[in-house]
Amino acid sequence: MLRIAVAKGRTAKEVINLFSSCGIHFDDYETSRKLILKSRDKNIELILVKPIDTPVYVESGAADCGIAGYDILLENEANVHILMNLNISKCKMCVAAKKDLSLDNKKSLTVATKFPNIARKHFEKTGIDCKIIHLSGAIELAPLLHMSDAIVDIVQTGKTLFENGLEIKDIIINNISACFIANKVSLKTNYPEIDNLMIQLSNADKE
Amino acid sequence: MNFQQKKSQQIYIEIRNKLMHIYDIFGYEELRLPLFEKYEKYIEYKAVSEESLLKLIDRSGNILVIRPDATFHVLKTIQNMDEVFNRCCYMTNVFRFRENNFEKNDVLQSGIELFDSSSPYADAEVIAVAIESLKALGIENIHIDLGHSQFVHAFLKHIGIRSDADIAYFHKLLDNKNIVALNNSLYSADIEKKYIEKIYDLAMLFGSYDDVMNKAGNICSNAKMEQNLVEISNIFTALKSYGAEKYVHLDLGFSNPMNYYSGIIFKGYVNSHGETVLSGGRYDALAQTFANRLSACGFGQNIDVTIDIMLKKQLLEESNNKTIYIKGSDEQNKALVASALRGRNLKCIVDFNGCYEENVNNFITLNVDGENTEVKINNETKTYKTTDIIASKGAQLC
């Protein structure tokens, strides 16, 4: 049996759809609030975790594999194998700010973000002196309340930004999507199962 | 899993005895390693990243590093010894700062180092000791992955990746088998198309010996890589003499970003446990630089991970020696009974303040009350004369 940690919420929904297109069904998902789901054939166990925690479960070996956004893997620099791009939950990592604010000539910025490491590295590269405010959600509020000049966050459709009067000023990473990751030991000790699953997933991906 | 059991010290001692016995029958002698080393000496040694070093400042302002790994201290210790040690072993704590909260800063590690032998049989011996030491603890389903530290390096050089920064970057991606980032980087880097496929293959070049050796031929692009494969194949042949080959698989995608190892590298796992329990390899260059020795090969085993595995697989049995608790109001007779029982090498604890644990298995309780002594074994109570128990040194209890 393979134990796979998946970010609950939107990613979990897409992952379960992806799995069912490979013929792996999780019947409990719609009906129950269980955090551990078993596949119909009992070969796979999904653990629903907080997105930011996914790599921790995999790195520590509590889960054999995981499905996590590449943004989170970059932020955490997790010590796991990152084996496959699943092309689901696509988004990009952006710098955003109020529409009427130009960041072009700014030499210093206050930035609110869930991704302090990614933000720090980005502004180091662009040479902007930056103060980072680490928040854990609803980042869009920070510029509205004048807590920060800008935010660094993932953007999927841009709807939330638009409705809050913000717009994308710069793209840090394009094409982020959920990745299939594996614990370094599990990859070796459960290779046949993991390899098999990856083949199934990559075939589903092409269809 | 956190190891916070009451009898931890006893378990450590049992594990230590078993491991030291294995090291001993292979001829390894135990070294005591210093706790501190001057920082200036340590920075040239690249095994541990700068950020994870824990440091102290002494009264003259020197910066001291608190032992972050054992091998450096072994090298320093043997260099200052009059006798020539070729085989040494240790069991000691190593201290590193770790960012993630599931690893401890203080890890108990044991291991061996074999000097001045560069034969494939020497490498095989080190791997065999690693396997035997896991077996001695009752651990089964051992999986050793063997690779060569120079294989990836030679490949990267061959395909035209030259700058140190790029080499380090690709080493890291390969070490993490980060296929996603490889995808993004390979097409932007200036690499010939025919090599791109090969990099993916190299990242996933692991599995059984025969499988990997078959596939490796396609990836080999130069004489150096072929030489690496010959070394691996010689070691694998040597492993057969130790009966160790059945535990050994290959991973040629192992990489060595710090350039610490110069020959083979290996890691040990146990099925269904997600942490590496031991790792090692050949580090001739370091042995030459830091201890003036020709060559060296060794491994270190993480005892905390070992104990987690043993807990999970229920290999940590309580010792069969029963503990005898002696309680009661008659202080003098309690002491007399205890002395008599210890004459038979039984473990006795005299209770002075009534705070013994009643419901513990493997315990015998003696309630000494003047002439009579109540003996409670497995909830059965019998009464004997106290003088009889003293005279027979507790024959009634056996």
Q: How much helical structure, as a percent, in the residues of chain B?
A: 40-55%
Nearest-angstrom radius of gyration of chain A? 19 Å
User: Rg of chain B from C-alpha positions?
Assistant: 27 Å
CATH class of the largest domain in chain A: Alpha Beta
Please give the largest β-sheet of chain A. 6 strands, mixed
Backbone shape of chain B: elongated
CATH domain topology of the largest domain in chain B = BirA Bifunctional Protein, domain 2
| Helix-strand makeup class of chain A | alpha/beta
Q: Tell me, what is the CATH class of the largest domain in chain B?
A: Alpha Beta
- What is the first-to-last residue Cα distance of chain A? 26 Å
Q: Could you give the distance between the termini of chain B? A: 37 Å
The secondary structure category of chain B is alpha+beta
Q: What name is given to the CATH topology of the largest domain in chain A?
A: D-Maltodextrin-Binding Protein, domain 2
Low-pLDDT residue intervals, each spanning 5 or more residues of chain B: none
Report the CATH superfamily of the largest domain in chain B: Bira Bifunctional Protein, Domain 2
Secondary-structure blueprint:
The complex is a heterodimer of chains A (about 210) and B (about 400).
Chain A lengths: L1 E6 L2 H12 L14 E3 L5 E6 L4 H7 L4 E5 H7 L4 E5 L5 E8 L9 E6 L2 H11 L2 E6 L6 H4 L5 E6 L3 H5 L2 E11 L1 E5 L1 H6 L1 H16 L1
Parallel strand pairs in A: 1-3, 1-4, 7-8, 7-9
Antiparallel strand pairs in A: 2-3, 4-11, 5-11, 6-9, 6-10
Chain B lengths: L7 H18 L3 E2 L5 E3 H5 L11 E3 L5 E4 L3 H10 L7 E9 L10 E10 L4 H17 L5 E7 H10 L5 H12 L3 H10 L4 H11 L2 E2 L1 H11 L3 H19 L6 E4 L12 E7 L2 E10 L1 H8 L4 E7 H10 L10 E5 L3 H12 L4 E4 L12 E7 L2 E6 L2 E6 H7 L6
Parallel strand pairs in B: 1-5, 7-9, 13-14, 13-15
Antiparallel strand pairs in B: 2-4, 3-4, 5-6, 6-12, 7-10, 8-9, 10-11, 11-12, 15-16, 16-17
Description:
The complex is a heterodimer of chains A (207) and B (398). By secondary structure, chain A is α/β, with parallel strands linked by helices. Helix content of chain A is 33%, strand content 32%. In chain A, the strands form two sheets. Chain A has a six-stranded mixed sheet, sandwiched between helices. A five-stranded mixed sheet of chain A has the order 8-7-9-6-10. In chain A, β7, α4 and β8 form a beta-alpha-beta unit. Chain A is elongated, with a radius of gyration of 19 Å. Chain A starts with a strand and ends with a helix. Chain B has 398 residues and is an alpha+beta fold. Chain B folds into two domains: 305 residues, Bira Bifunctional Protein, Domain 2 (BirA Bifunctional Protein, domain 2); 75 residues, Anticodon-binding domain (Rossmann fold), CATH 3.40.50. Helix content of chain B is 40%, strand content 24%. In chain B, the strands form three sheets. Chain B has a nine-stranded mixed sheet, sandwiched between helices. The longest helix of chain B has 19 residues. Chain B starts with 7 loop residues before the first helix and ends in a 6-residue tail after the last helix. The model of chain B has no long low-confidence stretch (mean pLDDT 86). Chains A and B meet through α2, β5 and α7 of A and α7, β8 and β11 of B.
